[in-house]
Design goal:
With 195 residues, this protein is mostly beta strands. The protein is 0% helix and 73% strand. It folds into 2 domains: 95 residues, Single Sheet (Histone H3 K4-specific methyltransferase SET7/9 N-terminal domain); 79 residues, no CATH class. A 15-stranded antiparallel β-sheet has the order 1-2-3-4-5-6-7-8-9-10-11-12-13-14-15, with no helix packed on it. The radius of gyration is 23 Å and the shape is elongated. InterPro entries: MORN.
């Protein structure tokens, strides 16, 4: 069941609509039996979200904070009911994304940090994927990295990879070394010329 508190605007042909500042929260529980099998257990699911911010003509529009069903929180811009503009989404596990959004997806420049993997990506996103020029770092001190152009989350084409033991400059395909490139060990010894 949903609940709204905040500003409303009267309309001549129906109930008042959300317009201005306000908070809407929704919570529902659903119980579902198994796939029609006799003796199958019921599964209970809870749906929850909360939006606190600006409204325009009944939809989220402007600045706001949105708590989603997975308990992640997005704070930033909304347009026509969608996360669009700049904003930050923080997840329960400590991971986050801060950057540009369009229609609820990462789009344009942004920075993502994945806490469990100690991984950070800074660069271009398209359709919620790493897609364009960027740099992916990992490890506790974030000193290991790959930098170049990403396609579908993986480095593709010319780029650089630096790890504790190896520096590689050259071609990548699907996130791995492929084609022409030079690999050198960090200790100064010559590595291999690939290609």
């Amino acid at each position: 069941m949903g609940r709204y508190t905040g500003d409303l605007i009267e309309v001549s042909n129906g109930p008042a609509i959300r317009h201005g500042k306000g908070t809407y929260s929704y919570s529902a529980r659903a119980e579902e039996k198994g796939a029609g099998e006799e003796g199958s257990e019921a599964v209970t699911s809870t749906s929850f979200y909360k939006y606190d911010g600006e409204w325009r003509n009944g939809v989220k529009d402007g600045k706001g904070s949105f708590t989603l069903h997975d308990h992640s929180v997005y704070t930033g811009d909304f347009l026509d009911g969608e996360m669009t503009g700049t904003g930050r989404r923080e997840y329960k596990d400590g991971s986050w994304y801060d950057g540009n959004w369009r229609d609820g997806e990462r789009e344009g420049y942004g920075v993502e940090f994945l806490k469990e993997k100690e991984m950070r990506y800074e660069g271009i996103w398209r359709g919620n994927k790493r897609e364009g020029k960027g740099k992916l770092t990992w490890g506790k001190d974030q000193s290991d990295f790959v930098e170049g152009v990403f396609s579908n989350h993986r480095i593709q084409g010319p780029g650089v990879s630096v790890t504790r033991s190896l520096v590689y400059r050259g071609a990548f395909a699907g996130g791995v070394f492929e084609g022409d490139g030079v690999a050198r060990f960090r200790g100064g010894e010559d590595g291999a010329t690939l290609g």
